[in-house]
Every structure is written in structure tokens, then in C-alpha cells.
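> tool_call: predict_assembly(chains=three)
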Amino acid sequence: MTQTATRTPILAATGLVKTFGHVEALRGADFELFPGEVLAVIGDNGAGKSTLIQCLSGAIAPDEGHIFFDGVEVRFKDPLQARHAGIETLYQSLAVSPALDIASNIYLGRELRRRDVVGRVFRMLDIRTMRRLAEQYVRNLGIETLQDITQRVEVLSGGQRQAVAIARAAAFGSKVIILDEPTAALGVREASHVEDLIRTLRDRGLAVVLISHNMPSVFRLADRIHIQRLGRRIAVVTPQSHSMSEVVAIMTGAAAA
Amino acid sequence: MPRVCVWTCGIVNGEVRHAAIRSAICNDFNTIPCHSAVDLLEFGHIHNKTHTGGVMKGKPRLVAAAAIAAAASLVVSACSSSKSSSPTSGSSANASASSGTNAGGNAGGKIQAALILKEFTNPYWISMENAAKAEAAKLGVDLHVSAGKADDDATSQIQQIDAAISAGYKGIIIAINSDAVNTALQRAKAAGLLVVVVDTPPIPASIADVTYATDNLQAGLFIGKWMAQKLNGADADIAMLDDLANQVITVDVDRDHGFLQGMGIPVGNPNMNGQEPKSGHYTGGKGGNYKIACQLPTNGSATGGLSAMETCLSKDPNINVVYTINEPAAKGAAQALKNAGKTATIVTIDGSCNYLSLLASGQIGADSEQFPGKMAQLGVDAIAQFAKTGTKPTMPAGKDFINTGVQLITAQPQPGVDSVTPDQAKSTCWG
Amino acid sequence: MAERSTVTAPERTTPVGRRRSASAREMLRAHPTLGPLVVLVVSVVVFGLINTRFFSPANLSIMLQEVAVIGLLALGQTIIILTAGIDLSVGAAMILAQMVMAGTEVNSGVPAGLALIIGMLVALLTGLANGFLVTRLHVPPFIATLGTLGVFTAAGLKYANGQTVNPPQSSVLLWSGKLLGTGTFRITTGVLTMLAFYLVFAYVLGRTAWGRHVYAVGDDIEAARLSGIHSARVLLSVYVIAGLIYGVAGWVQIGRVSSASTNISPTLNLDSITAVVIGGVSLFGGRGAVLGTLLGALIVQVFQNGLALAGVQELYQQLAEGLLVIAAVSVDRWIRRETRQ
């Protein structure tokens, strides 16, 4: 822990409070994420996991507390702002357009135009470059299941779609990728493939937040585990320091942190 | 169950003419014997009572009694401003007796009436509307104008008839879109409204109290005879550009069949278009061979006429006779002929001022002129008369409608067919 | 790493028995205009065999002229339907725009060019009204445009007051009715205008970011939003552009009949939707191409014309059109069904 404490967290939060009517979803939650690590966020239902993540990704604004991105305090008005800063969130719904092809999906919302007159005046897209670069992103991440970059996303399997979404998140210089239950809907083989992909992201220096209920998966992937309980972070552990049953005990309040 | 009856007093041009009940409301609530209540009233004996109001609730008999009192007070309060404090009780009583039920919303002291047209897009109906409004203004009639969404839209017309009943109008002038409105018109009659049908006679004719129509069959006969004379024995290759696809609307059938009969071609089924033999011998004029090249609906519009004529020319480029349901369709047909570089003789029915130039130049050969303004005018007159005196216009014995006339306009007069020139028609055309 | 490579191989196998229908679906899904193209070609051949006049240059040119106005309306409708919307106010918007164009020129004495611009502005405003209702007040497009259908119709009738307006022969408003061509094959500048618009929008939808965004919004509006697309802005622009296209349609309509009147088919909205649907554009959004709509409009026209030439009564033409629509939507459902698996 001393080793990490000297580094600046890429994304951090202190004392986050968020209430919905009478419900206190967050009661002074802290959060720290460092570059090049996979941080799993776990917690029982109602522990405030998703509220915490939504605050960090700009989907909702906390009532109190501070959020720091790369050491600077930030206040995101919407997810797009967070995204522009470099925080990419992959929702379970994946945010892909089924009828568009893989390359178009990877570039959706940030299409490249041709640089010549045709591009400037007639706003023609540079489809060839987008395909070439998209293919590169996909290959660089070692994704081999996506053979043809011009395939429409709707013909892909769940794991392949997840790969497209991750490739897109990784493609545009993001610093933080938040993954919400990335393997929940997948079969064993596909899930293991996505796990490989998450490791690749980490190896490339990105910071990954992994929200998951799947303990074996969390223990396979995570460098650190943020345990959320009753609206607060009650512990940060590592797969090395604690066993799976100890973590579950802390999470459910059966054991002290 | 609430029982409501509203009583009002009608003043026309400052004089009390009759007492009236908004019977439609009574009917809706299925209650008060309003008619008998009116019959009990003797307006001449009611003096100087104060106004109390017009909405009653209670048992029928009590309501009737209360209603009489209320009506009386209304009559009086309304009458007190009039010149004559003892109104012409004779005619008032007459009004209530002869109409059976009374009726006649007289808000603001004006006779209220509805004018329901086929639709609002054809200038023919707008011309009728304008003439009716002018006449209504002259006679102090408050005229509410509405129309169907298209000229086969009976649903809207039924709603508009029911609205006129509910509002307690004195009468309805309607150009019916189909027989589907018959039941609604019967409701209106039963509620005491004067039902005036214009343009196209209803079937059966008894649906209307009075019908002012143009004789569409006669209008068709004129152009048919004219065409037969003009052909002078030549073969006729005919395009029939009707109004609607369903081929059974009276005006559509009458005009189409009038034309065919004028040409001397048997119509086949008298109630439906398109049943004539597709080729044969026409007997009008010097007689000759004919062929029906095509028969298509135009929806009575220029666009429809254009499309239909284009299709007809594709089917048969040698068409030389074009019958069209109305002037917009004729204009469309003329445009199609012009685009294709063809010539044919077009005949039509309407007689608006807009198209006299096409008649003068021969783009339209002959046009049976009708008088929509006159029909509307007569309709408004009938309602005003009915409201004032309670008398309905009488229909000529053995006739289904009062004919407002037809005359043929053409720049190329033919022997044996009476006609006027486009120049002469300038004084009689409409729009 | 060894594990990973074993993962990749067997993923896309298909049971042998289903391969054929799956590939037919896959084909239609990848090329949504294929179906309408086949229908058009087959129907043209069949009608040509029934009546040889069908192929006469005069008849072919007339079919193109007939399709100009409805083709433009269907183009605007297509863009809206691609966003999973619908526009019931097309015909009314067009009629209002053309009445304003002709009315301002003839009745108010405005120069024709300016009258055209004013009419186009009115058309733009109709689109803006629809777009505002859909994006700002979140009224479902069906309801929003049902409402504006009434509003625009009333406005058109009020403005026209039953008049048929005839612009002078020299008016630029009649430009689109100008006949071009040789012999009996003659098309109007209006037809060329329509075709030009299809080319432009085929390009814009397929080759620009805006086009991609239109598809993405129609495909899954939430996904589009999360991808950083300003969905509301895209939707608003779609309705405004559709409005402008309706204005052009109004211009072409004036040229075609050489007058402006409110007395035009009351079912233009449904006719335009028919063309879109027969053209293989999905009513559920995000799928289809403008070329398909053009084919759809042509198919409807070919059926009407071909059946009329074959001497079939008008009511059977309507029947044929109805069956085509049902077939087209059924095919669309069939194509999409596999997507859900």
C-alpha cells in the first residue's frame, strides 16, 4: 500500500454523499483508482456501488464530496463530459448500434472525415481510414474473434459485442474504463476471453474499474478490491491478502474489515 | 338521472318570433315532453315577469311545469327589450305547432343554421359557402359552416349534423357525401330542424324537407349531346374520368350516365358507373362507333385528372373524347394532353368563372354550368322563412328536388343544343 | 494464450439445415433494397408482357412524372422513419407550402423567387414544429404529427380559401413542370429534381457522420446517446430537413399541375409511408436505404399503371397495394426476428 500511496490516483473521490429522498445511497464514500490497475468494486445490493459509479462517470452529481481526476478536482455535468476527460463507461446495455458495422460502431460519434476538399466541403467520411484504424485497435488488443471489421454488430455474439465495446473504449485515449458486469451475460469461454481483454487493457496502462458479482472472476482479475457497504467504502483488500470467503464476510457485515 | 331542459326565446330583427326549446338536449337526456310543454304556452298572455333561469332538474311533470315558467320568464325578459311587447302570438304558436318540436338556437337573437359542405378544397363548395354567407348576413342568420375531410367522408358530416342538433340550430343545409348521412338527417328532422339538401338529391328524396339541386343527369346530358353533335359521325375513343373509385356516388353516377345517355350509349347498371358496353355504336348526333378507352377516378382534383389522363393516354394514345367529372379534373386532363402533345375534346361540368378562359380557347370543349350560389342562397332563404313563419318550402309534385338549373357554356355551339358563349357566361358564372 | 486461440474457431458455425434460410435473411439484412429491386424488376416484366404499351417511352416517362411528388414526400418520410419516427403531416405540410408559394406570388405580388423562398421557409417551419414537439416536449412522433396534420391542413385551407392559384407561365414556380427529352420520352425537371435529391440523400446518409447518426438514433437511441451523439439535435435536424424536402415536393407539385390547390389526394401521408415500407425501410428504424424508398414509390406506380393498362379496376389496384405493404412488413419482421436471438 505504501508503494501506491506515493502515486497520484488517476480517479479519486472523498466523502461522497448522495441521497434519493429518504434513502442515503452514499454516506461519505471514498474511492481511489491508480493507473495500470484493475480495481474491482464489490458490495451487496444497496451498498451504493452503482450510485458511486454513476457519480464517477458523470451520470449523476453527488450532493457532497469531491471527485478528482488526475489530481484535479472535477465536476462532470453529464457522461459526455466524463467521456471527454477520458472516463469511458461500458454499461451492460453496451451502447452499440446493431445495424451498423464494427468499424462504424467503434467510430460512432467521432467519425473521421476525409481531409481533402470532398471531406471539407461535402463532409465525406473517410470510411477506409476508419476501417483500417478500427482493425488496428482490435488487433492491438489481441481480439481475434472479430474477423471482419465490416460485419454488422447484430450478427455478433454477446462476447464479440463486448469486445467491440471494449475496443471502442480503449481506442480513444481513455485513461479510465469502467466496466459494469462485463461477463454477466456470457458463457464460460466468452467470459474468459473478455477477462483476457481486461488484462490486456491493464497491461497497456489503463485503469480499469470492474463492477462484478462474480467472485471467482474478481479474484482472477483484480489487483485490488474495493468493498462497498452501507454507502461507504469499508475496506480495500487484495486477492493475495484475503480469501474469497473473507471478502464475502466483510461485504455482508459478517466480519469486520 | 339528471333531467335538463333549456328554454330560450328567439328574437329576429328585434322582434320576438317564437319561443323555442333546445330540444336536442332534452332528447339526449331522454326525458321531458318538451313538445307538449311548448304547446301549453300561450305567449300572448305572458307579461312582465322576471327572468329566472333555464336549467331544470326534477321529475318530468314538475320539470315540465317549471320549464314552462322558466320559458315564460325567458320569453318575457328577452321580449322586454323588443319594440312590441305583445308579439305576434299567432305566428309563434304556429311555429311551435307546425314544427312539432320547436327548435332553433337563437343565441344573440339570430337564427342559427349549419351549412355542411362536401369538403373545403374544391372552389365549387367555397363558392357555395360564400353565397350562403352573403345571404345569411342579409337575413340575419347566423351560419355555421363545416365540411367533410374529403368528398366521400360521411363520418365527419354525421358528426357535424349531430353537433347542429345538439346546438339547437334551426336548420341544416347540407351537400351530402353519401347516403350514410341519412339516419343523422332523420335525427335532425325529428329534432325539429329544417333539413335542406343542396347540390345532390338524397335517396330517398324524403330524407330532406326540401332539396335544391342541380340536375346532374341533365348537366351530363347537355355535354353528351353536344359531344355527339360535335363528333359529326366520327368514331369516338372515350376517356371517362370519374370522381371516385367506388363508382356509386349519386353525383358521380348521374353526371357520368348523363353524358353517356347524351351520347346515346346504354349505361348498363343505372346505379353504378363503368357498366356500359366497352364498345359499340353511339346514337347521338349522326351516330358512330365508340370505344371506352379507360375509366379512372380523379377525386375531382387537377392532380387526379392529370394522373388519370396520363394513364389513359398510355393505354390508348388515340383518345379523342374526354368526359371529366368537374373542372379541376378537366384542367388536369387538358394539362396531360398538352404534355403529351395530343388533342382531344374535353367536356366537363361546373361553370366557375375560373375556367371560362379554357372554354374560350377550346381547351375545354363544353361545360355544363351549375349554380351553387343559387342553391345555397335558396337554402338559407328556406331556413330563414321557416324560422320566421314556420312554413316549409313545398316540393313540386312528383319531383325529388327543386332544380336550380343548368346551362351549357361552349365557344363552339352545336345545332340542337342550347348554349351560351363563355363571354355570356361571365355574368352567371360562380366563384 | 493457447486457451484464447481455441476460443475463436468454432464460434460461428450454423446448423446445416438452417443455413439456407439464414443466408437468405442475411442477404436481405445486408442489402435491404434487394427485395424491392426484385419486386420492381419482376413486376415491370410481367406488366410489360401483359400490355406492350407499358414499355412505350411515353408510358415510362409518365410513370416517372407521376412519381416525382410522392417520391420527394417519401424521401422526407424515409429519413424520419429511419429514426424510428413517422410523419403523418407530410401531405398537409406540402399543400400548405405550395399554397403559400403560389399565393404569395399571385395574390400578394411577391416576386416568384422570393415567393418560393417564403414557401420553403413555411415548409421548414412545419418541420421545426414537428421536431420541436418530438425532441423538446417528447411527444411520440405518431401523435405529434397527427396533431400537426390537423394544424397544417387547417392552415392550408384557411390560406387558400378554396382558391386555385394559377401562377403565370413565366413563373419560376412552374419551372419544375418543364418537359425535357426527345420524342415521346419526356420527363420534367421535377423528375430530375426528385432524382437529384435521392442521390444527394443517398450520399448524405451513407457517407457523412450525420447520416450515420441518423441510423444510430433510429437503431437504438439510448446507445446513440451513450456513444456521444446528440440524439435530440439529430432528430430535430431530421424533421427540419424533411420539412424542406416537403417544400421542394410542393414546388414540384405546382409545376406538375401548373396551379396550386388544396384539392390534392388526402392520403399523401399514407401513400408516402407505403412507398417507404415497400422499399424495405424498417418502420422500427435504423434499417433501410433511400434507394429502397425510390424503388418502393416506383413499385406502387408500376402496379397502378400496369393494372390500369391491363384494364383492372381501381379497387383491385388498392388491393394490390395493400398486399404489397403487408408482404413488405412481414419480410421486415422476418429479417429482424433472427436479430433477437
